[in-house]
Every structure is written in structure tokens, then in C-alpha cells.
Amino acid sequence: xxxxxxxxxxxxxxxxxxxxxxxxxxxxxxxxxxxxxxxxxxxxxxxxxxxxxxxxxxxxxxxxxxxxxxxxxxxxxxxxxxxxxxxxxxxxxxxxxxxxxxxxxxxxxxxxxxxxxxxxxxxxxxxxxxxxxxxxxxxxxxxxxxxxxxxxxxxxxxxxxxxxxxxxxxxxxxxxxxxxxxxxxxxxxxxxxxxxxxxxxxxxxxxxxxxxxxxxxxxxxxxxxxxxxxxxxxxxxxxxxxxxxxxxxxxxxxxxxxxxxxxxxxxxxxxxxxxxxxxxxxxxxxxxxxxxxxxxxxxxxxxxxxxxxxxxxxxxxxxxxxxxxxxxxxxxxxxxxxxxxxxxxxxxxxxxxxxxxxxxxxxxxxxxxxxxxxxxxxxxxxxxxxxxxxxxxxxxxxxxxxxxxxxxxxxxxxxxxxxxxxxxxxxxxxxxxxxxxxxxxxxxxxxxxxxxxxxxxxxxxxxxxxxxxxxxxxxxxxxxxxxxxxxxxxxxxxxxxxxxxxxxxxxxxxxxxxxxx
Length: 517
Fold this sequence. Notes:
The chain is α/β, with parallel strands linked by helices. The protein has helices spanning 27-38, 77-83, 102-112, 173-182, 196-206, 239-255, 284-289, 306-313, 329-333, 346-349, 370-377, 397-402, 407-412, 415-418, 425-434, 453-462, 467-473, 486-508, and strands spanning 10-20, 42-50, 59-63, 90-95, 98-99, 119-121, 124-128, 134-136, 151-153, 156-159, 168-172, 211-215, 223-226, 237-238, 296-302, 317-322, 337-338, 355-361, 381-392, 437-445, 476-483. The model is unreliable at 1-8, 448-452, 454-462 and 502-517 (pLDDT under 50).
């Protein structure tokens, strides 16, 4: 940083701030942001983007949305930045409730000096509850730290979070120039990986050949307050969980060994439909499916470990092959024994141990070959052991209604195009049979976090329906299966292979081929 002038301002650092502010509901936060920027010792120009005039003393306002959809408003900052690309050193875009401080900006400038040209330092949002609880809403559902992205730059350890959206970003003049020249910055409003609002704030990372990294070794300097605190208690992880995860990332950097993820957990469907939820809550249906006599459980694809920790509390011994060592770090610290490596080497890594129960929760439909994945579990099963499989119920009445636009893609294309296998009760039974297992029970589960009125009614009605009808309404299914004795397993596999051969021959003779559910 250069020296400050006598009036305390660093006039040599020119900053353009664009704040998207639709309507008036967040005006109190907008005023707070403007005061914060005005207090900084930089030469700052502030432009508010809105559907109504919000110009004021020292604040410019551009009125109007780039498209009819009001959610397109954030895209208005892009032509503004392009018009003034040569006039400023820093370009800040944010929504009207994201508080970026001088400390945040100085930290950005310091780390940028040691980054490579295609790397951009980014922020995480933090929220604060009424009781002082801290919440980090950007880390939720399928969004997670990419454990293969960890890198060291100077005194910093950085990692990529698969959720690039933090409702804000900062670019240097050189980074903005790169974004504009890429052809992916000055585009009409559109939806891609994210909705309209989020897409406008993430295009530099997703469209322009640049990648966002959070300096996890200095994460406090790269958290920005989401003033509305709207997700506290609803979405996100706690301060303790973030600490566990950042410490795990730093350990990866120190060991200079990049761990391989267990599965590809992201689908290629819109908005990552059917991707693995790294923070899925405990399913009581899964818990009840575990045999009462079970004393040892192996979990395949452990995420944050809510289910595994519940079983530890009940006195069971739990071993897990986690999705990665970052998201599972909290579960490991609370008694879940972790084994790392390739699932094909499971029997060796488990030292030949037989488990009373194996959990395979919402990962089988993501495996490259579900039958092969199930087959690898057999060496860890005795004839009396159970396998509990949970998968989405992709052809249930509820699911079809919710995912109508994705259904033609899911039915018409294979795993290589979608990153997911069509998952139904019949499909799971077929996978088990091919792997030499017998399904004992199948139940449908409902979304207990349902927010729509129709969804809540359907969930309540589903509790009183007979099992076949309940499965037709279910959003996911839980299957309990057992390993067949080797001789019966071989006969079942031979029968399946013969059936497949007949179907293939029929197809080659020109008969119409339908999806096998």
C-alpha cells in the first residue's frame, strides 16, 4: 500500500463500487454500506443499481433492469465496469446487504500480490444470530471445499469452494481486463449453474477463465458480514464446523499430498440436481433400518457425519470411508474411525473386517457402476450382515412434479452425459441382485423439511398410505439388503447376465428398446 495523504486518504488507490439494490426493503443495509465505504482512506466512487432512484450526496444511481425479469438487476454492473475499466484500480460488486470492510480490501490486495494470473481471492459470507451464533451460509448441501484444489502461495493456504457465490466480488483492473477479454463477462442476463441473481456475481469465476480461491489460512480476513442474517438456523455451517474444515485443508497443504475424492458427487443436471448433499440430516428411516443387534457399522460416502455421529452416541462402533477428509473432519474428531483410499481396495483397507451393517447413503446413484460398487462391499459382509441403501426416488409422483424439465434428459441420456444413474426402487433391487444381494425391505421416505404447502400436505398424507403407495409419493427410498451365499449369488448373477444378453440381442434385431427401471 502507498502512503496516506495528510487527510488520511489514500488517493492513489481508486475504487469503483457497484451496489445492486432492488426496492426499499434493504435500504437500511444500503446506508450502512455507503457509510462504510465513505470511511475508507481510498478514492472511492459508489454507484447504486436499482429499479428506483436512490441517488444522493456523493452517490450515483443507475435506474433500470437489463431485462424484464427484476432478478436481472445485478447484471447492470457489468457494462458499468467495462465503461470505466481504465479509471480504477479495484472494482467491487455486491448486493446491498454485504458489508466489505477496509480490512477485507487490504487482505485482498496483499494476497493478490502472490497469486497466479488465473487465481482470484474471494470471500465467504458470515451471519450472526441473535445469540451471537455465527453461521456460514455459503457452505451447504452439495457445496463443499474441493480437497484437490488446496495450494500454498507465500504465507497463505488457499482452497476452492464449489459454491462461488458470496453475493460479492472484488477484481483488480488487470483481472477485470482479463474477464472482459474472455468474452464471458459482457453477456446478457442468463441462468446457468446459478440463478440470475447469483450468476451475475459469479461470472468472473465461471465464465472468464479465472478461478476463485479462499485464503483458508486467513479466513477471518476473508469473511464479509451478510447483514440481513437471513439464513441463520436454516442454511450453512457453524464456526466450529468451519474451523474443523479449514484446519483439515491446512493439514493437506502441509503434507503436500492431495487426497482423491471417493466419488464424483456432482451431477451434470441443472443446478446439480441429485448431487450428494454433504450435510444431509439424520434420516430416522435409515436409523430404524439398522438391525438392533448391530454393533459395528461401516459408512460409505460419509459427509459431515450427522448419521454417523448419532450412531456413535448410541454406543455403536462406526467406521467410515468419507467423501473427503475435509467435510468429514468434524465426524473424525467426534469418534468416527476413518479409512481413506480407493473403494476398490476397501477389503484391504478394512483389514478383512466384517461389519454388522454397511450404510450407503445417497451415493450409489452417483457411482460410475453401482453394481461394481455394491460388489466391493461383499468382502466386508457376513451372511447375517445388512446393507442399508438410500437413494433418490427419481420417478415418484412428487419427484416428477418437482423435476419435470430435467426428466427428458435423465431418461434419454446415460451416465456419461448426466453424471447420475436413474434411481428407482426397481433399479436398486436390480443393482443388488446383480451384485449378489437380496433385498429384504424397501420403504419410501418423505422430505421433512418441505416448505411448500402442497409438499407438506403430501408428506403428511404419505405417513398413512400403504407401503406401495407411499413409495410412489416418496422423495427417496431406503432399501435393506443382505449378501447371498456365494453359490446363490453366482446363480443370480448368471441369470441376470443371460437376461441382459437376450435384451441386447432383441435390441440388435430392431425391436424397440425401453428403459429398464
